[in-house]
Specification:
8-stranded mixed beta sheet, alpha+beta, rod-shaped, 291 residues, 14% strand, Endonuclease, Chain A, Arc Repressor Mutant, subunit A
């Protein structure tokens, strides 16, 4: 070893308490390993013990805080998730951890084919684990080939799908503990609700809507299709009587504005109405029996 390497090695051994240097003679003296334990290891162990004591105390304080503020945490505000990508990741994570049941409502008529395809694998994983799944659509979703195909894929696995004329507000509820809700500004984000009172309220509303809904039938079921068409028309009539605009009626029923206006035109023609005001008067006077 050259002098530089020797000095580095001596310094390292000195730090460990294994080597000492006389300040007068400059002679190095080796020390036994026990000396190193006393000089280096014991202080380090003492510092570690102090850190562990601090962590144990902090853990206990946080556990106590959790117990004393449980009722406050249950009433915290909604957690907002602004991005659609983060929303999808959240839904996937909650679905993978779901234990017993998923309740989902998807109003708006026909669903986007890309969205259905994206959710298909997640839905199949849920059902294959034995998780129950109930879904509410609007009646108009029955006339969507993509939606019908999705329903045909998941119902043999145990999923249940029903439809309503008005629909139920959009939501996904996992294990009756966590609810995913749309943001009121119409963006692609979502709000996450964990409040037990709010989630219970949503579940009760869902159950009432479910009991009034009709089972999703195939397109070949002509009687069911006729009944659904009549139900849609009756909903449009009720909204016409209330004086709602075409845009509002289309939104509530879950159909396009053009399709909505076609329904309204047929209804007005069938009752002999000259205009919207006259139609509202006639419909309020006598029950509508269908086009």
């Amino acid at each position: 070893m050259d002098p530089f390497e020797t000095e580095e090695a001596a310094a390292a051994l000195g730090t460990l308490g294994l080597l000492g240097k006389c300040p007068v003679t400059g002679i190095y003296t080796p020390y036994p390993v026990d000396h190193a334990r006393i000089k280096v290891l014991n202080p380090a162990q003492h510092s570690l013990n102090e850190t562990q004591t601090f962590l144990d105390q902090l853990r206990g304080d946080l556990d106590e805080l959790t117990l004393t503020t449980a009722h406050i945490q249950d009433d915290t505000t909604l957690e907002l998730i602004p991005g659609v990508g983060d929303v999808r990741k959240l839904i996937t994570g909650l679905a993978d951890g779901c234990r017993t049941e998923v309740l989902t409502s998807q109003p708006g008529g026909a669903r986007d084919e890309e969205v259905l395809q994206e959710s298909l694998e997640r839905t199949e994983r849920l059902l294959e684990r034995g998780v129950r799944m109930r879904t509410l659509y609007q009646h108009t979703a029955r006339f969507s080939p993509a939606t019908a195909s999705f329903v045909e894929r998941v119902t043999p696995l145990g999923a249940q799908v029903h439809t309503l004329a008005h629909g139920f507000p959009r939501c996904i509820i996992f294990d009756r503990e966590v609810a995913i809700l749309p943001l009121s500004d119409g963006s692609h984000g979502a709000a996450v609700a964990r409040n037990s009172h709010l989630v219970s309220f949503l579940v009760e509303g869902f159950e009432r809507a479910w009991s009034a809904a009709e089972k999703f039938a195939s397109d070949s079921d002509r009687p069911a299709r006729a009944a659904i068409t009549s139900d849609i028309q009756q909903t449009i009539v009720a909204l016409l009587i209330q004086g709602e605009s075409d845009n509002r009626i289309a939104h509530v029923v879950g159909i396009s504005l053009r399709n909505c206006q076609r329904h309204i035109a047929n209804i007005m023609k069938s009752i002999g109405a000259r205009n919207r005001l006259h139609a509202g008067y006639l419909l309020g006077k006598e029950p509508f029996n269908g086009v």
